[in-house]
């Protein structure tokens, strides 16, 4: 009887796990973003920017926010490491694609990497938050210009471009709130639940 009630209690109160994949070119600011998101959601300071090193494997962050368990996967963005991105597609509810707004010369490369990921059937229906990161920097491009250069209007996925700074935290709360709401609106959460 106790275990039945406990099971029911757990079922009602257990927070849904939403898995969010963070992608983008090397040095775009993915790990800095992960640390800032952890800080914003938990109130505890994340790693100092100076102690963040290029990611070779995977960084994982787990926080409770928006009545869910959010699990972030931050992968390395160096060219030679992008081939492992697709191992995480099938299990992800949504994507954050981080773009360095101070490096317009790398937008074509970012576009190629982004479109290659989105071409995968395993990401079907996944909402994508594009973070125009490093907006705190004096030489940052305005997001509207980047949107055009990335050719995002061709995309059919639920999409938002957000001005952001992983250093100051600008735009991160709004972006995350939008992403979680989109995950809940999309069929993808139900699709992933069926696969379990
Ligand atoms: N000004 C500014 N610098 C940033 C911001 N986000 C990241 N950086 C800097 O950009 C550099 C790269 O940041 P990382 O977070 O390591 O980038 P990454 O995308 O994780 O890179 P890889 O792990 O190699 O794929 C570091 O020097 C960061 O301090 C930002 O919002 N503003
Ligand atoms: Mg990194």
UniProtKB/TrEMBL annotation:
Keywords: ER-Golgi transport, GTP-binding, Lipoprotein, Myristate, Nucleotide-binding, Transport. SUPFAM superfamilies: P-loop containing nucleoside triphosphate hydrolases. InterPro entries: P-loop_NTPase (IPR027417), Small_GTP-bd (IPR005225), Small_GTPase_ARF (IPR024156), Small_GTPase_ARF/SAR (IPR006689). NCBIfam families: small_GTP. Belongs to the small GTPase superfamily. Arf family. This is Uncharacterized protein. It comes from Coccomyxa subellipsoidea.
